[in-house]
Amino acid sequence: MNEDTIDGYTIPADGLVLYSPFTIHRHTDFWKDPEVFNPDHFSPKKIKARQSAAYLPFNTGRHKCIGQTFALMEGQLILAQVIQKFDIIKSVLEKPAFKPGLTLRPASPIDLTIRRR
Ligand code: HEM
């Protein structure tokens, strides 16, 4: 490994580079209205237009999650089955505060009512 310079920053050969997915996922260079829940952010057209590293919940590069394809498929299958049978209603509409940790969590529990359709 050698020293490198990226965008004016010198990275030593043994340097440790950390990045923040939280910041990248909210960066207005990559996302229009990043704080707004908008499934259209993930339309095939939008995904194609955006650089791939702008969204990295599974990381990228050498240590990219090996379960990514499985997790995305499993998530969609579970969601499709659950919403066919149940309505999920959020009782409190305020935006939850964050509790940052190894993963990002809501600071307090989110109350949901689950009703059979
Ligand atoms: C929503 C679900 C998941 C998310 C968000 C997720 C996220 C991640 C992330 C961010 C990393 C990189 C960690 C790092 O930078 O060192 C990772 C690594 C990894 N994930 Fe996942 N993961 C998920 C599900 C899964 C599943 C279902 C499996 C296995 C079936 C899995 C297996 C792994 C393994 C083995 C690594 C280590 C890869 C390596 O270091 O070479 N993950 N995951």
Could you describe the largest sheet, including whether it forms a barrel? Answer: 2 strands, antiparallel
Point out poorly predicted stretches. none
The average pLDDT score comes to 92
Portion of residues within helices = 10-25%
Structural class: alpha+beta
Q: Shape, please?
A: elongated
Could you characterize what this model shows?
A two-stranded antiparallel ribbon has the order 1-2. Strands 3-6 form a two-stranded antiparallel ribbon. The chain has a two-stranded antiparallel ribbon with strand order 4-5. With 117 residues, the protein is an alpha+beta fold. It has a domain at 4-65. The protein has helices at 21-24, 44-49, 68-85; strands spanning 4-6, 9-11, 86-90, 98-99, 105-106, 112-116. The protein binds protoporphyrin IX containing FE (HEM). Protoporphyrin IX containing FE (HEM) is lined by residues 57-59, 63, 65-67, 70-71.
Helix and strand arrangement:
Elements: E1 4-6, E2 9-11, H1 21-24, H2 44-49, H3 68-85, E3 86-90, E4 98-99, E5 105-106, E6 112-116
Antiparallel strand pairs: 1-2, 3-6, 4-5
The chain binds protoporphyrin IX containing FE.
What would a concise description of this structure say?
The chain is built from three helices and six strands, in the order ββαααββββ. It has helices at 21-24, 44-49, 68-85, and strands spanning 4-6, 9-11, 86-90, 98-99, 105-106, 112-116. The chain has a two-stranded antiparallel ribbon with strand order 1-2. A two-stranded antiparallel ribbon has the order 3-6. Strands 4-5 form a two-stranded antiparallel sheet.
